Amino acid sequence: MSALYQVLYCSRNRMSGGSKLVSDNIETILAISRQNNARDQVPGGLIFSDGCFAQVLEGPMDAVVAAFERIQCDERHSEVIVLRSGPIQARSFADWSMAFTGSSDTTLSSQLPISAVSEDGDAVLALLKSVVVRETEWLRRRVN
């Protein structure tokens, strides 16, 4: 198995249409990403807030780079900014093919809009990790 690698980026949404159409498009993105990420062993987290995406991908370097190249070519993204890329010691999102929270989460949007931290990789990564912790706890409570 190759060394673990991580890419963290922010981008602006280029999807047109109302909030329902954008929401439907994001659901499609998530379904495809979760399938591809599980197959390629590239877990991650995605936030959509304030018209911006923030995403982290981690896994074998070749798989992460290939996934990120697909994202960069995707017309739904513009102004893609890499906040962090490089080797990592351990995965932060190992249990998630793609954790997600969206703009309907008003606490998230008001607490830390993605556009306000789009150049602060540490803040974006901390936000993504907090989403995973919150979602994991919610799922555990739901199952028990």
Q: Topology of this structure?
A:
Elements: E1 4-13, H1 19-40, E2 44-49, E3 52-60, H2 61-73, E4 77-87, E5 99-101, H3 106-111, H4 114-117, H5 121-143
Parallel strand pairs: 2-5
Antiparallel strand pairs: 1-3, 1-4, 2-3
GO molecular function: blue light photoreceptor activity; FAD binding
Domain BLUF: 4-99
Protein name: Activator of photopigment and puc with BLUF domain
Write up this protein:
The chain has 144 residues and is α+β, with helices and mostly antiparallel strands. It has helices spanning 19-40, 61-73, 106-111, 114-117, 121-143, and strands spanning 4-13, 44-49, 52-60, 77-87, 99-101. The protein has a single domain (4-143), classed as Alpha-Beta Plaits (2-Layer Sandwich). It has a five-stranded mixed β-sheet with strand order 4-1-3-2-5, with helices on both faces. A hairpin with a 2-residue loop joins strand 2 and strand 3 (52-60). The protein is globular and about 40 Å long. Mean pLDDT is 79; it is low at 104-113.
Keywords:
BLUF_domain, FAD binding, 47% helix, Alpha-Beta Plaits, Activator of photopigment and puc with BLUF domain, globular, 144 residues, blue light photoreceptor activity, 5 helices, alpha+beta
Q: What oligomeric assembly is this protein in?
A: single chain
Return the CATH architecture.
2-Layer Sandwich
**Total strand count, please?**
5
By DSSP (H or I, 4+ residues per run), the number of helices equals 5
Low-confidence sequence ranges: 104-113
SSE order, one letter for each helix or strand: EHEEHEEHHH
Helix content class: 40-55%
What would the CATH topology be? Alpha-Beta Plaits
How far apart the termini lie comes to 35 Å
- How would a textbook summarize the main sheet? 5 strands, mixed
